[in-house]
Amino acid sequence: MNMSSVLHRSLKSTLPSVVGGEGSYLVDDAGNRYLDACGGAAVSCLGHDNAKVIAALKHQLDQVSFAHTSFFTNAPAEELAKFLVDRAPEGTGAGRVMFLGSGSEAMEAALKLARQYHLERGQPERVRIIARSPSYHGNTLGALATGGHAGRRAPFQPLLMEVGHIEAPYAYRLRESGETEADYARRMADLLEAKILELGPRNVMAFVAEPVVGASLGTQPAPAGYFKRIREICDAHDVLFIADEVMCGMGRTGSLFALEQEGICADITTLAKGLGAGYQPIAAVMAAEKVISAIETGSGTLWNGHTYMSHAVATAGALAVQQVIEDDGLLANVRARGGQLQQSLHVRLAQHPNVGDIRGRGLFWSIEAVADRDTKAPFPVERSVAQNIQAEAFARGVMTYSAQGCADGRLGDHVLLAPAYTSTPDEIERIADTLAAAVNAALDAQA
Ligand code: PMP
């Protein structure tokens, strides 16, 4: 195959060219079929050829595709906003939702919204953001600065605004032996209070966290009670809580909003991948009543805007995606197939000498590969273990998503699975079988 004219992430490798999608499978120009076990990056939650979504997109193309939001709103965007507001945990969404093109854009918008909230209320000194490490919040400079991912930040460090980071819960390595889950949750959440006090409570604008950490930490849920304590701390200091549900939201963890399972709601919520399931690029920012009303009663103007906001085709597609998820009862399948995937991974890999941890929630699971199970020592980064497992699985026709720690030596390699919500029991078995074969092949090859 010729070198690609498109600038992809890797300039050294050639990629197969995708020409079709059939349910959970993608097909390349040589006719090879790949079972998409990771939704690309936890995006394609309805497979690749959903008839209802495609019909909705075609219908909207026949009406109108784009009209700038300085002049018009449009029906699919209005309907999608209402759909989300009606289903969000009480308090999450006020009357209004902002639609953007990507998760990074949504994170930038969330940070700016938090800044605007405090400015509207006469607190301009609140400029400091606190986030967690490891975490990933996007690739644009503000989102990258917010994320706690050493490897991705490193080349751009001089360009990044200062953000305070606290450690994210990571039971496999951070929960002390003998520590109860409640004590562990409290200890991890209280790191936020300490950081707020360190930065000066009146200077802190927002705390940002993924309810279930995705790409940076391999599908890591928080311990029970963690987010309740986070909510208390944010309320006590008038700090806005921004939940980044870009990857874990829209059903991926078994509930439409991942935070539903924590019994609290955020002040600002970002959504993206599962929102449009990849049929069109789309992201959303929802904000609680107090944030919206501060703007309504203040300047009355959103200090943020992008050309493709509320794109009619993108919102029509996302609305159809969400209707399919609801009408077909797919969250029940996420939970059922998720339980199956968890069990299948445990059966095949829990005793493997180089698999240290298997973790996740819903249809969002990861394995963490380590050099030594007793010491939990990670493999050296240069061995590219996660990438090699991904390559072995891909060679066997299954797509998985590899992430190699944070390049700071604190994390093992992990391989993430995020199959479609429509997955069948047979597909789940094939995913678990292939991942186990790929782990064996990648580690044997390195032995
Ligand atoms: N936040 C989280 C939690 C993500 O996983 C991602 C993407 N992996 C982003 C933000 C950024 O989204 P995008 O790549 O669409 O800009």
Automatic annotation (TrEMBL):
Alphabetical keyword list: Amino-acid biosynthesis, Aminotransferase, Arginine biosynthesis, Pyridoxal phosphate, Transferase
Organism: Nitratireductor indicus C115
GO-annotated biological processes: L-arginine biosynthetic process
Protein name as it appears in the record: Class III aminotransferase
NCBIfam families according to UniProt: PRK07483.1
UniProt xrefs under PROSITE patterns: AA_TRANSFER_CLASS_3
GO CC terms, sorted: cytosol
Top-rank taxon: Bacteria
